[in-house]
Structures are given as structure tokens and as C-alpha cells.
Amino acid sequence: MRSLPGVVAAGAISNPRLSGWSNDQSVEVEGFDPPSGFNVFDEMRLVAGRYFETLRIPLLQGETFTGFETRDGPPVVIVSESLARK
Predict the structure, then answer these.
(1) Which residues, listed in sequence order, are joined to residue 35 by a DSSP beta bridge?
(2) FRET partner for 28 with CA separation of 20 to 30 A, picked from 34, 41, 57, 77?
(3) Residue 25 — φ and ψ, nearest 5°?
(4) Residue 54, phi then psi, degrees to nearest 5
């Protein structure tokens, strides 16, 4: 799609919001010892391309994906501000 005339950025996402599909996942943070009964669940979505740039979603801290992430490489994740607060 990026090669089409007039297209500035393109991206894709699994389970878009309001789609009716959900993918709740338990989140564990290395080095964090949660209190008894504390669980962090949040929605997980897979993104591709320049998803954040396409929708003008600002990255508040860190780096966006490079496009060179692989299954054999280290895990890479971007979390929402609300999940970071949890």
C-alpha cells in the first residue's frame, strides 16, 4: 500500500478497537514482585508497518519498532500509558 500514489504511511493491527474481538493477556514485569492477588491484564494487539505513525499515535518514551524484529531476537513490546501506570 505504501507504494500507491498519495500514500504517506501505512500500517495494520490485529483486533482493532470496537471490532468485538478481544485478546486479554496477563502481563508479567521482570523484577516486579506483585502483591498477593495482584494481576495485570490488558489487551494485546499485533501491529505492522508504520501503524503508530499512520494514526498519529505519539510515542511518549523509548523507541518504536524498527521493522527488523524477528522471532529469534529479543522480545520487543510497546505498552500503552495506562498499562505503564498499572
Answers:
(1) none
(2) 57
(3) -135, 145
(4) -60, -40
